[in-house]
Write a structure and sequence with these properties.
19 strands; single chain; 12-stranded mixed beta sheet; binds manganese (II) ion; alpha+beta
Length: 283
């Protein structure tokens, strides 16, 4: 199932070129009182809401996908985790590690660790990216995003799939410079997630997805998730050895070679097989 959020906080199920409005299902979520939970209630409730979503998708109002304004499919993630360099070709681009073997490369990644991006930087495909520092170099990083489905800590790699609600395309936007990653990658609008969430049952092998990003029609990054140094299971094992992961937490899995600058007015088109394609404008 392809789940999106659109327009004025509507919930939708994507079918072909249409979005079916299933917002009515949100009334089944538990009413929360202050203090609010530190996880996303919709993603936490997804397994039990599935029959109601399927039913609502048969009867809801239909709109053309091209007529809706797409928001981030997860509204309230507790945290946005991100892997640093996680493809051998980009590691080579970023550091002098060409000579290292696979195990040593993973050690290099683990030395840097998983970092966090501010939740306030989260943005949907139709909302676009706004450059706050256009005089500096601002880069696109296309990445597969894993949406965590249930709470866990010290999750073993072999069982990591049980903790995945689904997948989206992510843009880990970055301003280059000396500041901490968490600051340079947390500027408002710098964590684009979309165009929707594809539930995990639709993607049996997330370790074999083609990924591209074009900027103004020019191919900038192209990879397959088979080339991830730390695969999704390993990333969840590593992350959850530091953080309790919660439903709705987002995990950016790292970007391949070819990151490059964008300018106001640029049009980024990111695509991952099995998920779809999202167009994101730069302002
Ligand atoms: Mn990244």
């Amino acid at each position: 199932m392809l789940i999106c959020r659109f327009d004025n906080e509507r919930l939708g199920v994507v079918q072909g070129e249409s979005v079916v409005d299933v917002t009515s299902v949100l009334s089944m979520l538990p009413a929360h009182r202050y203090p609010l939970p530190t996880y996303d209630p919709l993603i936490a409730g997804l397994p039990s809401l599935r029959p109601a979503l399927e039913d609502a998708a048969r009867h809801g109002e239909r709109k053309k996908l091209t007529d809706v304004h797409l928001l981030s499919p997860v509204a309230n993630p507790g945290k946005i985790m991100a892997a640093p360099v996680n493809y051998a070709d980009h590691l080579k681009e970023a550091t002098d590690t060409a000579a290292l073997n696979h195990g040593k490369k993973i050690e290099e990644i683990q030395k840097v660790g998983i970092f966090l991006k501010a939740n306030s930087s989260l943005q949907g495909a139709s909302q676009g990216v706004r450059l706050e520092h256009p005089q500096r170099r601002n880069d696109h990083e296309v990445e597969l995003v894993v949406v965590i489905g249930k709470a866990g800590r010290n999750i073993e790699r072999a069982r990591a799939h049980e903790y995945i609600a689904g997948y989206s395309i992510g843009l880990d936007m970055t301003v280059r410079g000396p500041e901490e990653r968490s600051m340079r990658k947390s500027i408002d609008t710098f964590s684009v997630v979309g165009p929707w969430l594809v539930t995990a049952d639709e993607i049996p092998d997330p370790g074999r997805l083609d990924m591209t990003i074009h900027v103004n029609g020019e191919l900038r990054q192209q990879a397959n998730t088979a080339d991830l140094l730390m695969d999704i299971g390993a990333l969840i094992e590593f992350s959850s050895s530091f953080y309790t992961v919660q439903p709705g937490d987002l995990l950016f899995t790292g970007t391949p070679a070819g990151v490059g600058p964008v300018q106001p007015g640029d049009c980024m088109v990111a695509e991952i097989s099995g998920i779809g394609r999202m167009q994101v404008m730069v302002r």
